[in-house]
C-alpha cells in the first residue's frame, strides 16, 4: 500500500511532464506507449526509403504490402499503423502502401506490349492464351508480364479469370451476354453446353 501511495502521488507530476514533452514534440504517445520524436523521425525516414526503393524497382506495381514494410523495420504493428496513418506523404490502400507522389505509368515500350497483349487476347476470344504462352510469344520475363497484366486488370481493360488466364473486357462482356441469352431460354447449363459456347 505504501508503494501504491508513492506511485499515485507521482502520477500527476509524470503526466504533466509527458504533456510538456508532447507539446514540445519531444515524444509521440500511442495509447500507453511513448516514442521519442527522434525514433519517430527515424521510422518515417525508413518508410520513405523502403517505399522509394520499391517504386524504383517495381514501377508497375501500385504499392508495397504493408506487412513487408513493417517487417523490414522490425517494429510493433500497432505503433507502425499509428505512425503510418499520421504520415501525409504515404497513401494506404487496404493492405498496400505507397508514397503519395507515386503513380503507376507505362513506358512507351510497356504501352506497346499492352497493345500486343490486347490484340492477342481479343483475337483468341473465348480461348485465351495462358500467361506462359503470352510471355513466350512476346519474349517477356514473367515478372514484367505479371506486373503489366495486373495493371491492365486494375485499369479495366482485362478481366482476371484465374492466376494464369486473363481475357479482355470486350470478350468478358460477350461471355456474359451469351450466358444471359442461354439462361433466358433454359434454367440449367451442362458443362458440355458451356464448352460448346466457348468454342463457337
TrEMBL record:
Q: Name one GO molecular function term.
A: translation elongation factor activity
Statement: the UniProt record of this protein carries the keyword rRNA-binding: no
UniProt keyword list: Elongation factor, Protein biosynthesis
Supply the Pfam families for this chain.
WHD_2nd_SelB
Give start and end of each Translation elongation factor SelB winged helix type domain. Answer: 49-87
Please provide the Gene Ontology terms (biological process) for this protein: selenocysteine incorporation
Note the superkingdom of the native organism. Bacteria
Which InterPro entries did the record assign? Elong_fac_SelB-wing-hlx_typ-2, WH_DNA-bd_sf
The answer to whether keyword Protein biosynthesis applies is yes
Q: Which GO terms describe its cellular component?
A: cytoplasm
- Alphabetical list of SUPFAM superfamilies matching this protein: Winged helix' DNA-binding domain
Identification of the protein by name:
Selenocysteine-specific elongation factor
